[in-house]
Amino acid sequence: MSRALVLDTETTGLDPATGDRVLEVAAVELINLVPSGRHYHVLIDPERDVPEEASRIHGFTREMLIGKPKFAEILPGLLEFLGDDPVVAHNAVFDFNFLDHEFKRAGAAPIPRSRMVDTLVLAKKRFPGLPNSLDALCRRYGIDNSMRTSHNALLDVQLLAQVYLELMGGKQPGLELATSRAASSAGPVLLDAAPVNRTPRPIVPTPEELEAHTAFLKKLKEPLWTVAAE
User: Roughly what angle, to the nearest 10 degrees, separates helices 153-167 and 119-126?
Assistant: First the structure.
């Protein structure tokens, strides 16, 4: 059994080195590439303002986050959920950089980069030169992302889990279930059914057809069977 976590964060901006903070963390558990049903999701008080341009992306405002736990308070639960397993993210360097800064503020060691799996890197190798955003990958794999009207970490990890399964060469569980249901509705497969006896019906050309065929062959220049024979 292999376990991995698909993770996403939402933040107050683009650069933790200039003071931007994490305000949402979500992760879903995968067992053998398939979501197990367990997930982790928390909103966080970033302890600073949320710029309007960031709010337009994810929909969170400073007022919505006042009173939420601070990152140091949610860290033990996050670490327990992540365990020691691989952490999958889209453009993972962005999320890991933010988590590095938050972990450092809380006095904790960062998640080792050896555990990082970046689906953006995987997608670029699979589809070089094509758009490889999460939305683009959902469209390419036929994954319904119609509910993604804003960047929501919990919804994004649920979509990314399906994308990751496809990138790893798997099949969407829903498709397998639909196939098995269709097979069941069609009735049992009779592997031991009696063989059907068929009467051979050989086709014998007439003398005229043989003559016409011979004349046609004489018109061919260097037919493959004579070249192979040489």
Answer: 40
Query: pLDDT, tens digit, for every residue of 78-104?
Result: 999 999 999 999 999 999 999 999 999
CB 70 within 8 A of CB 94: no
Q: Where are the alpha helices (DSSP H) in 83-230?
A: 92-105, 119-126, 134-141, 153-167, 173-185, 207-218, 224-229
pTM of the model: 0.73
Rounded to 5 degrees, what angle do the CA atoms 5, 7, 13 make?
A: 165
Tokens representing 192 are 């031991």
As annotated, the active-site residues are: 151
Strand, helix or coil at 182? helix
14-63 per-position pLDDT tens digit? 999 999 999 999 999 999 999 999 999 999 999 999 999 999 999 999 99
What is the DSSP track for 53-119? HHHHHH---HHHHTTSPPHHHHHHHHHHHHTTS-EEETTHHHHHHHHHHHHHHTT-PPPPGGGEEEH
Burial of 97 (0-12, 13-18, 19+ CB in 10 A): middle
Q: Is residue 194 classed exposed, middle or buried when 0-12, 13-18 and 19+ CB atoms within 10 A define those classes?
A: exposed
Torsions phi, psi for 3 (to 5 deg): -120, 140
